[in-house]
Amino acid sequence: MNLTATKEAGEVMERHIEDSLAILPPIKTCYNLNSNDLFDHINLIDVGSGAGLPGLVLAIACPDWRVTLLESRNKRCVFLEHVVNVTGVTNVKIVRGRAESCGQDVMYREKFDVAIARAVAEMSVLAEYCLPLVRIGGLFVAAKGHDPKEEVQNAENAVRMLGGSILQVSPGLWPPSDFDPLLR
Question: Which among 9, 47, 74, 93 has most CB atoms closer than 10 A?
Fold first, then answer.
């Protein structure tokens, strides 16, 4: 359905699948710091899920998680529904909507342990989209590339105004200079 530019199988595995799975260790580390949180039963929302990266990959890798794929475009939602039906994954819910609206909706506001976004928008905008969806004490993971230290610094004020703080910047897989800022 032409949802990613990557076509070659090896590159898809490295650039998309392995990169999606690289998000697990930093999340696990953050959850292990707080003994009241259970890593095995996370309620996660993937904002701007697109082709299901990383949300669908995480749902398959962590079958006890509840994963919501939030996507505003109907074409992508149809694709995600097809993939869920073909794979038989039962821990995924697909929501057609915009993060700005869902963040104000009582069904979604502060309901998720983890919100994640990959290749959606700049950090300050992502903070506005994602932090309202995260419960107090939860995590927001912004999968960013190309050494986003400056972008993270520029977003610090927006993150603070939304009640969050930057916990860590973790290296990702693709390309080797990628980082995943984790926000609480």
Answer: 47
